[in-house]
Design brief:
The structure holds two protein chains of two kinds.
Chain A lengths: L1 E2 L11 E9 L5 H17 L5 E8 L3 H6 L8 E6 L4 H11 L2 E8 L3 E2 L3 H9 L5 E11 L4 E4 L12 H4 L8 E3 H6 L14 H11 L3 E13 L5 H7 L23
Parallel strand pairs in A: 2-3, 2-5, 3-4, 7-10
Antiparallel strand pairs in A: 1-4, 5-9, 6-10, 7-8, 7-9
Helix pairs in contact in A: 1-4
Chain B lengths: L6 H12 L3 H10 L2 H8 L7 H12 L12 H10 L10 H8 L13 H7 L1 H6 L3 H9 L13 H4 L5 H6 L5 H11 L10 H8 L8 H7 L14 H13 L12 H9 L12 H7 L10 H7 L15 H7 L8 H9 L25 H16 L2 H13 L11 E3 L8 H13 L7 E5 L6 H16 L5 E5 L15 E4 L1 H4 L4 H15 L3 E5 L2 H17 L1 E6 L3 E2 L5 E2 L1 H10 L4 E4 L2 H10 L4 H4 L2 E3 L15 H7 L5 E7 L6 H10 L4 E7 L16 E3 L16 E4 L8 H9 L3 E4 L14 E3 L5 H13 L1 H18 L2 H13 L1
Parallel strand pairs in B: 2-3, 2-5, 3-4, 5-6, 6-9, 9-10, 11-12, 11-14, 12-13, 14-15, 15-16
Antiparallel strand pairs in B: 7-8
Helix pairs in contact in B: 1-2, 3-4, 12-16, 15-16, 23-26, 24-36, 26-27, 27-28, 31-35, 32-34, 33-35
Chain lengths: ~260, ~800
C-alpha cells in the first residue's frame, strides 16, 4: 500500500466527517461521483461542518488513477491499496480517517448534495445511529427506486433481514461504529459474500440503530457486473449471524 | 314532534337557559341535529352528543351557528335581506325566528319544499297550519317527506333521526340532487359492490336494491359502497388538489363520498389507493385507446379480470393461482373479503405481515400498504428531492435511464424479498422448537421403500444419539402416510409453505430453515429439494454442520442413460458431504470405481443394509413343497410399482405363456411413465390393489415371490420376502445381488427375458426340494446381512468416526 498524499500530516484538526470515495476501475464514471461528492462537501462546509476528503484507489486501473490525479490539489488524501475486497478497503479507510463520522461513496454512484450535512445532523442525535438516505435512485440497469426503511418505522420488520438486505454501505456513522464492527472479508471462493448485508445484521444485533434521513437520496448505478449481482450469480451466501439463527427469536406458543 | 332520546330533558333545559316557551323550545330541539352541528361547530368526536346540545345552548346559538338541516342561518338571513327586514347578527337569529313566528314567506331551509309538501299532503295544507311548522312539529316524526328527491328515503332508512342525519351530509338541496343523479347515473355501473357491502354490514337486508340502500342509509353508516372507495385516501387527495390550486372545492361540510360523486369523479380523482392510473395504463397497453377516464374501465371491467393489475400491491392473476378455492368475479374483492385475513400474499413481492389488521369498512392492510408506498412517492416528489434529482441529472444525464414508469421498492412490505421474508417467518413460527441436533430431509412419506428406509434410519439415529433431538422435514410433498415408521421423531412439513414458489425460492426457504436451526447434522434421504440445496450451497453449509446423503439407486432414462441422484446430483455436493450412505454395496462399489476413490474418500461411503420390517417368526420355507405334494396349481405374487423401471410387462407376458400359473399382483403406478391395459390382462393375473402393511399379504398361500426390475438398489420388499422364507424368483439387477444368489433364490440376468423367467419357473416346478433348500438358505442369509443390530451398529459408527 502506498500513501500518495504528501500533505496528510497537516490535518491534525478534528474533522466532523471523513467523506471517503472508494474507487476501482470506474475511470471517467468516477468523475461524476467526484462532482456529486464535492457538491455535498461544499453544502456541508457551508453549514459549518469540517470535512476530511479521502479517496481509496483499490486495485485501480490506470484511467481511474488518472482521473483522481489532481485530487490532492483539491485537498483530498489519496491512498492506493491492493485488496480487491470492499470490506477491507473500508476498514483501511476508517483506520486512517480523522473525522468523528465516516461516510462512504462508491466511485460509480452519486450523493444528493444535502447528504453529508443532513446525515451528520441526524447522527449527532444518538451515538448508536447509523444513517442512510431515504431513497436509492437506481439507474442505467434499473429504474427502481428503493425506499430505505428506518429501524424505528412502524413497518420495520427485523426478520426481513434474513431474506434480503435493507441498506447498503453508503451510510454515515460514528467512526467508532466502524472500528467496533469492521467489515468482514469477502470470500467468494468459500461461497461467502454480501459483506454489507452481514455488517447490517451484525450492527443490528449489537444494538445500533439504522436510521433514515428524510429528504436525502443516493443515485446508484446498476451495472451488469456489480458485485451484488455477481454474488447472486455465484450463489454466494451471507455468513452466518445472529439474525439468521432461529434461537434468537422469541418462540410464540412454545411448548417449552 | 320529533321524538329524540332525552328530548323532554332538552326541552326543559332549553326553556330554562333561553327562556323560551315550551312550543319554541320544542321547535328548537326538533331542529337540532348532532352530526350537523358537530361539523358546523368543528367540535371533535370526543365531545358527546349531550355536550353538543349544551354547547349549542351556551355558545352556538349566540354565534349564529345553524342547528340542523331544517334551519340554516345563511338562508334565513338571505330571506330577511330579500324582504328588506332589518336584523342584528349579534343576537341569536334562531330565537328571533321562533319569536317572530315561522312563516312561508321566510325561507329558512333548503331542505323543505313548501309546494311539494303542500301538494303531497293536502290535509295539512287545508288545515291552514304553516307547512314548515307542521313538518317540524309533526311531519318529521310521522315520516312525511319534505322534498321530491326523498320520495324513496323511508323505504330504506327507518331510523328516528334518519332524515335529519341524512340531510346533514349535504350542504344544499342542489348537492343532494346532484349526488342522487350522479350516483344512479349509468357511468357508475359496476362501481357499487353488493357482496362487499353486505360483508361490511354483517347482516342481511330485506331490501333487494342494495345500491339504493347505500344511497339513503348506508352512506350514514361506517360502510363503503365499493372496495374501490377509501374515505381517508379520498380526503387526502382532495386536500392535495386544493393545496395545489386545482379547480375543486374543499370538502367543507360535504360527505366525502358525496363530494366524490359531485366533484371528484369529474376531476378524475381515484377514490382508492388500489388504483394507480399510470401503472394501469403502462401495464395494459390495450387500454391506450380507452375513451374517457380509465378508472371507469377498471371498476366496470378490469377489477373482474384476473390478468389486470391496477396497482403494484395486488396481482389478481397471482392471487387467483395460489388460493385453494375458485374465484368467481373480482379477485381483489375475494382477496379483501377472504384472502387477506388468511394471510395469503396479494402479489409475489408484497408482504403485509407488519401492517396491523384494519376495519374492512374503513380500509384494509393492502390499502394501508398502497397508502404507505404513495406517501413515500410523495416524499420523492418534494421540492427539495426534485432539486437534488435535477442536480444529479445535470451531472449524470443517464440518471433517467432506462425510461419508463419508475417503480418504488419499499421493503419490507413491497420488495422482491418481501414474500420470501414472509415465507421464512411462517416457516419459523410453525416449528415447535428452534433447536434440533439433527435434521432428516425426506421428500414425503408414502408407501415406498425409500420412505421406510428413512424411518428405519431416523429411528436408529435416535437410538444412537439418544440425547439428541431429530426433526424430520418433508420437502417435496405433504403426504405422511406412515408416521409410525419414524418413532418419536418430530415431523415438519416445509413443502406446504413453498408449494407455489419457484425452484430457487424453494431452495432458499429450506436454506433458511437449516441455517435457522443450525443443527449438528443434516441427512438427505431422497429429498429432491435437499439435493438442490446441497448442489448449490453444500460448500457453505458444510462449514456449519455435517451433511450426509443416502443413496439407493440411479435411474435409467428412456434412452438408456444412467441419471438421478448418484449420477449428476452427487458430484457437486460430494466434496462437502461428511458421509454418503447406501442401502446396497453394489452402488457404493460402482461409485468408488467410477470416481477412482482413494481409501480415504471411500471410507466416507457406508453401506447400511435395511433390516426387515416383518416378524421373523414367519417361516414359509415349507409351503412350496407342501403345495406341490398336495397337487395344488402353481401360484405366485408380484408387488411393486407399475412404472417403467419395474417391468410389469414381463409379468404379463409370463402370465400369457403360463396360463396355469396364477399371479396375484399388488401395486400402483407412481411415476405414470408406463401404460398397461389393466382391463384386458390375462385371466391368470389377479389384481389385488395396494397393501397398507406387508402383513396383509397371505404369504402362505403362495408358492413363490416374483420380482422384476430393470435397475434397482436392494428393495425393502425383497428383504421382507426373504425374511418370511418365501422362495424368490427375481432379476439380478443392481444391489439385489448383495443378498440374492443362485444358492438362495432363482435369478434371471439382464436383459430381462420372458423365456428366462418361464424357464426358471419350470425348473422350480421340477425341483421342489431345491426350492425349499434355497428358501432356507435365503432365510439364513437375510438374517445375517439385514438386521437391526448391524444397522444400529453401522449408524453409531458414523458418529464415532
Amino acid at each position: 500500500m502506498m500513501r500518495l498524499s504528501r500533505n496528510c500530516l497537516r490535518n491534525k484538526m478534528t474533522f466532523n466527517i471523513s467523506a471517503i470515495i472508494t474507487a476501482h476501475e470506474e475511470a471517467l464514471m468516477a468523475g461524476m461521483s467526484l462532482r456529486s461528492f464535492l457538491d455535498a462537501v461544499d453544502y456541508a462546509q457551508n453549514r459549518g461542518l469540517v470535512v476530511e476528503k479521502m479517496i481509496i484507489l483499490d486495485k485501480a486501473n490506470e484511467p481511474t488513477i488518472e482521473l483522481f490525479s489532481e485530487a490532492e490539489s483539491l485537498g483530498f488524501k489519496l491512498y492506493q491499496t491492493d485488496y480487491g475486497d470492499q470490506g477491507k478497503v473500508r476498514n483501511f479507510a476508517v483506520e486512517r480517517s480523522q473525522g468523528s463520522a465516516v461516510a462512504f461513496l462508491d466511485a460509480d454512484d452519486l450523493w444528493g448534495y444535502n447528504w453529508l450535512s443532513s446525515a451528520y445532523e441526524l447522527m449527532l442525535q444518538d451515538e448508536r445511529y447509523i444513517v442512510h438516505p431515504e431513497f436509492n435512485w437506481f439507474f442505467e440497469g434499473s429504474n427502481n427506486t428503493l425506499v430505505k426503511i428506518d429501524q424505528e418505522d412502524k413497518y420495520y420488520n427485523q426478520e426481513f433481514l434474513r431474506a434480503a438486505n435493507y441498506w447498503d454501505a453508503l451510510c454515515l456513522a460514528n467512526r467508532e461504529v466502524y472500528l467496533e464492527s469492521p467489515y468482514c472479508e469477502r470470500d467468494v471462493k468459500a461461497g461467502f459474500a454480501y459483506e454489507d448485508w452481514y455488517w447490517n445484521c451484525e450492527t443490528v444485533s449489537k444494538g445500533y440503530i439504522h436510521k433514515v434521513v428524510p429528504e436525502t437520496i443516493h443515485f446508484k448505478r446498476r451495472r451488469a457486473s456489480s458485485q451484488t449481482i455477481e454474488a447472486s450469480k455465484n450463489k454466494t451466501l451471507m455468513r452466518m449471524n445472529d439474525i439468521l439463527l432461529y434461537s434468537n427469536y422469541i418462540k410464540e406458543g412454545s411448548l417449552e | 314532534m320529533v321524538k329524540q332520546e332525552g328530548s323532554s330533558e332538552k326541552i326543559d333545559l332549553t326553556m330554562e337557559r333561553l327562556e323560551l316557551s315550551q312550543r319554541d323550545a320544542t321547535m328548537l330541539v326538533g331542529l337540532f341535529n348532532n352530526s350537523f352541528y358537530r361539523k358546523r361547530s368543528k367540535l371533535s368526536l370526543t365531545v358527546s352528543d349531550s355536550e353538543l346540545f349544551t354547547h349549542y345552548l351556551e355558545k352556538g346559538i349566540y354565534e349564529n351557528i345553524s342547528p340542523g338541516p331544517f334551519f340554516s342561518i345563511e338562508i334565513y338571513t338571505k330571506s330577511l335581506e330579500e324582504q328588506r327586514v332589518k336584523y342584528d347578527f349579534n343576537s341569536p337569529l334562531l330565537i328571533r325566528w321562533l319569536r317572530t313566528g315561522a312563516s312561508k314567506s321566510l325561507k329558512v331551509s333548503d331542505f323543505f319544499d313548501y309546494d311539494y309538501y303542500g301538494d303531497r299532503y293536502p290535509d295539512v295544507r287545508e288545515s291552514g297550519i304553516d307547512l314548515l311548522d307542521h313538518f317540524l312539529r309533526h311531519g318529521l316524526s310521522e315520516k312525511r317527506i319534505p322534498l321530491k328527491e326523498l320520495q324513496d328515503f323511508y323505504s330504506f332508512n327507518k331510523t328516528i333521526n334518519g332524515l335529519s342525519d341524512y340531510l346533514a351530509i349535504f350542504e344544499s338541496r342542489n348537492q343532494l340532487r346532484l349526488f342522487l343523479s350522479g350516483y344512479f347515473d349509468s357511468r357508475l355501473d359496476g362501481y357499487f359492490q353488493e357482496e362487499f357491502y353486505l360483508e361490511q354490514l354483517g347482516y342481511s337486508l330485506s331490501v333487494t336494491d342494495l345500491k339504493k340502500h347505500y344511497a339513503y342509509a348506508g352512506i350514514l353508516l361506517k360502510v363503503r359502497p365499493s372496495c374501490l372507495y377509501n374515505e381517508s385516501y379520498y380526503i387526502s387527495q382532495v386536500e392535495r388538489k386544493v393545496r395545489a390550486g386545482d379547480e375543486i372545492d374543499s370538502l367543507n361540510f360535504s360527505h366525502p363520498f358525496v363530494h366524490w360523486i359531485i366533484q371528484g369523479y369529474d376531476a378524475k380523482i381515484s377514490p382508492t389507493p388500489l388504483f394507480a392510473e399510470n401503472y394501469y395504463l403502462s401495464t395494459h397497453k390495450d387500454l391506450m385507446g380507452w375513451k374517457g377516464w380509465v378508472f371507469r374501465h377498471y371498476y366496470a371491467f378490469g377489477v373482474n379480470e384476473k390478468f389486470r393489475k391496477a396497482s403494484p400491491v395486488f396481482d389478481g392473476g397471482y392471487y387467483s393461482k395460489i388460493v385453494e378455492w375458485n374465484i368467481e368475479g373480482s379477485p381483489l374483492l375475494d382477496y379483501l373479503m377472504r384472502g387477506e385475513a388468511k394471510g395469503i400474499p396479494s402479489a409475489p413481492d408484497v408482504n403485509l405481515s407488519s401492517i396491523p389488521p384494519q376495519e374492512l369498512s374503513l380500509s384494509s392492510k393492502i390499502e394501508e400498504c398502497a397508502l404507505y408506498i404513495q406517501s413515500k412517492s410523495h416524499d420523492l416528489d418534494s421540492e427539495l428531492m426534485q432539486s437534488m434529482i435535477t442536480r444529479a441529472g445535470y451531472i449524470e444525464p443517464l440518471l433517467h435511464q432506462p425510461r419508463g414508469e419508475r417503480v418504488l421498492q419499499v421493503p419490507p412490505i413491497k420488495h422482491a424479498g418481501a414474500a420470501r421474508a414472509e415465507r421464512f417467518t411462517q416457516i419459523r413460527k410453525a416449528l415447535n422448537s428452534y433447536e434440533y441436533d439433527n435434521i432428516v430431509l425426506i421428500p414425503h412419506c408414502r408407501m415406498s421403500g425409500a420412505a421406510r428406509v428413512a424411518g428405519v434410519f431416523t429411528s436408529s439415529l435416535m437410538r444412537a444419539l439418544e440425547n439428541e433431538s431429530v426433526l424430520v422435514v418433508t420437502t417435496d410433498l405433504s403426504n405422511f402416510e406412515k408416521p409410525d415408521w419414524f418413532g418419536r421423531a418430530e415431523i415438519f412439513d416445509i413443502s406446504h409453505f413453498i408449494e407455489y414458489c419457484g425452484p430457487e425460492e424453494k431452495v432458499l426457504a429450506l436454506l433458511d430453515l437449516v441455517r435457522g436451526i443450525s443443527p449438528k447434522r443434516v441427512f438427505n434421504i431422497n429429498s429432491r429439494l435437499g439435493w438442490e440445496l446441497t448442489q448449490t450451497y453444500a460448500k457453505q453449509l458444510s462449514v456449519s454442520f455435517d451433511i450426509f446423503a443416502y443413496l439407493f439407486t440411479y435411474d435409467i432414462d428412456k434412452e438408456g442413460n444412467k441419471v438421478g441422484y448418484p449420477i449428476s446430483w452427487l458430484l457437486p455436493s460430494a466434496n462437502y458431504l461428511s458421509g454418503i450412505l447406501f442401502d446396497n454395496k453394489y452402488l457404493r462399489d460402482e461409485i468408488c470405481d467410477r470416481y477412482a476413490l482413494p481409501s480415504t474418500l471411500a471410507n466416507k461411503l457406508n453401506v447400511l443394509y435395511t433390516p426387515p420390517s416383518i416378524d421373523s417368526a414367519i417361516d414359509c420355507t415349507d409351503v412350496f413343497l407342501n403345495r406341490r405334494k398336495s397337487g395344488k396349481s402353481l401360484k405366485c405374487f408380484w408387488a411393486g410399482r407399475f412404472d417403467r423401471q419395474k417391468r410389469f410387462d414381463v409379468v404379463v407376458d409370463v402370465a400369457k405363456l403360463m396360463p396355469d400359473l396364477e399371479i396375484h399382483v399388488w401395486g400402483k403406478s407412481v411415476l405414470n411413465d408406463d401404460t398397461f391395459d389393466f382391463e384386458n390382462l390375462p385371466q391368470n393375473i389377479k389384481l389385488q390393489g395396494e397393501y397398507e402393511d406387508f402383513d396383509e399379504i397371505p404369504l402362505r398361500s403362495f408358492d413363490f415371490f416374483f420380482y422384476t426390475s430393470d435397475w434397482d438398489g436392494l428393495p425393502t420388499v425383497l428383504i421382507d420376502i426373504a425374511c418370511s422364507g418365501v422362495p424368490v424368483l427375481s432379476c439380478d439387477s443392481g444391489g439385489i445381488t448383495d443378498l440374492f444368489s443362485h444358492e438362495n433364490s432363482w435369478l434371471v440376468g439382464a436383459p430381462l427375458s420372458v423365456i428366462d423367467f418361464v424357464d426358471q419357473i419350470v425348473l422350480m416346478q421340477e425341483n421342489p426340494d431345491e426350492v425349499q433348500k434355497r428358501a432356507k438358505q435365503l432365510l439364513l442369509d437375510v438374517h445375517n446381512l439385514c438386521n437391526s443390530a448391524s444397522y444400529d451398529e453401522a449408524v453409531s459408527k458414523l458418529f464415532k468416526e
